[in-house]
Amino acid sequence: MEVDETKCIGCGNCYDICPKAAKIWEIKDVAHVLDLRYCHVCTLCAMECPVDCIKIIRNAPEE
Ligand code: SF4
Ligand code: SF4
């Protein structure tokens, strides 16, 4: 999962929808991904993003 920070408008939808938001997302001016080990790739954040700047990549979590 990747965020294109140049397109992000910082609306916070990804944070609001994510079941693990407090561990994964930090919204300042734009969204930052803190720790993807907690992401279970439910894709909710990508569906809620109004500017489609979240890219879901299904691969093994990094160690
Ligand atoms: S895919 Fe699901 S768990 Fe992962 S960051 Fe998005 S909303 Fe959160
Ligand atoms: S939903 Fe998309 S535009 Fe909104 S803060 Fe998250 S990544 Fe940025």
Chain-wise SSE layout:
Blueprint: E1 2-3, H1 13-17, H2 21-24, E2 25-27, E3 31-33, H3 44-48, E4 54-55
Antiparallel strand pairs: 1-4, 2-3
Bound molecules: iron/sulfur cluster (SF4) (2 copies).
Description:
With 63 residues, the chain is α+β, with helices and mostly antiparallel strands. The protein has one domain (2-55): Alpha-Beta Plaits, CATH 3.30.70. The protein has helices spanning 13-17, 21-24, 44-48, and strands spanning 2-3, 25-27, 31-33, 54-55. It has a two-stranded antiparallel sheet with strand order 1-4. The protein has a two-stranded antiparallel sheet with strand order 2-3. Strand 2 (25-27) and strand 3 (31-33) form a beta hairpin. The protein is globular, with a radius of gyration of 11 Å. The model has no long low-confidence stretch (mean pLDDT 93).
